[in-house]
From TrEMBL:
Residues 1-21 form the signal peptide. Residues 82-160 form the GerMN domain. It comes from Lacrimispora sphenoides JCM 1415. Keywords: Signal. The keyword Signal applies. It holds the Pfam family Germane. This is Sporulation and spore germination. InterPro entries: GerMN.
Amino acid sequence: MKKFIVFLMSAMMMMSLVACAPTQPKVETTAPDPQVMASTGGASDKVPDPNAEPMEIISVYSKNDDSTGLNQAMDAVSELTADAMVDKLIEYSVLEDGTKVLQFDKKDDGTATLDLSQMPEKGTTEDLLTLTAVGNTFIENFELDKLKILVNGKNYSNDQIKQGDSDYLEYVKNYKKIK
């Protein structure tokens, strides 16, 4: 009888050990359909769309609220072109709607010439902010040293700003406080 009880106890002990042993998780062999999955707001939702068009990250400079300097914003364009930059400057209310790039000529020496169809002229010191916003946007994104701005093929000039043939814009580091 002692042998039977020892055998019964051993069997019960083995069964309890097997029941407590960790099991391998089931592995799903097929990938779930991404179009059927619901958005959960988690990390898995941050997977980029493989069909999305690649975008170029750009900096856009625009006038700050009190018109004493510029703000810098990061945005994206599908292709880094002068037309895309002007469209973003229109979107940020730096340039007026309808402004077109007549010509953009980037040289190997780090300079470029931008010929626009129009530039806003308010006859105030805001013109300097507009000019600086356009200059900083183009100089930074196209990695230029200097930028020459023309309006309809002529040097940019108004009542306060007179640019000559040898006048170029350079990047303004202290853009947050200009006046």
